Amino acid sequence: MTALALEVSQLRVVRQHHEILKSLSFDVAPGELVGLLGPSGSGKSTLMRSLLGVQSITSGTALALGEKVGTPALRRRIGYMAQSSAIYLDLTVRENLAYFAGILGADNSQVEHTLDVVKLRAFAGRLVTSLSGGERARVSLAVALLGAPPLLILDEPTVGLDPVLRQDLWRTFAQLVAEGTTVLVSSHVMDEAARCGRLLLLREGHLLFDDAPAQLLTRTRSSGYDDAFVKLIESPS
What we know:
Blueprint: E1 6-15, E2 18-28, E3 33-37, H1 44-52, E4 59-64, E5 67-68, E6 78-81, H2 93-104, H3 108-117, H4 133-145, E7 151-154, H5 163-178, E8 182-187, E9 198-203, E10 206-211, H6 213-220, H7 225-234
Parallel strand pairs: 3-8, 3-9, 6-7, 7-8
Antiparallel strand pairs: 1-2, 1-4, 4-5, 9-10
Helix pairs in contact: 2-3, 3-4, 6-7
């Protein structure tokens, strides 16, 4: 039996006497595209750090791919793209990928494959410092894809990008999911909700909603996602 991609039960995180995550529970099946949405300060990044095993969990449990989060065996099975760039500006795109591939033990064919997946082959020889924000985001995504991890955790990968670049990245996410990868992607832009198969909506550490995007509109009797989120906050039950 295939393990769930994520299993979270009664997850709490308290930092400096402040409860950041408040007893969150949800499961994610393999091959799902799940949007983690909510305003800044809602706990999205803390949840993602918890799932990566780099955030101390106060109580509750979290499993990724059938293993306890933070287990060394998961390090090469989860791809992570942080909000802040983790790539080297003074290296070319291909040099960045080759460097991180070496750390992961991935061979050169993985470098070439990811260049094609994120559509950066034409930029492979360019220094990252010469790239636009959207192109740099693609390099960061390519690094997360090295080694073909079955689970991707992407922390606001489209923030600050124009609508065309955002659309291109979401197409890439959908392609990865179609190939069997599980993708958990966070955003504070509510109009990106429709691109997901399922939504987890957070506010002040609470999970307000866990269902398909269409169900959010139906439940709140709204025509748009911004309006739906406001109504959900005002009447969460």
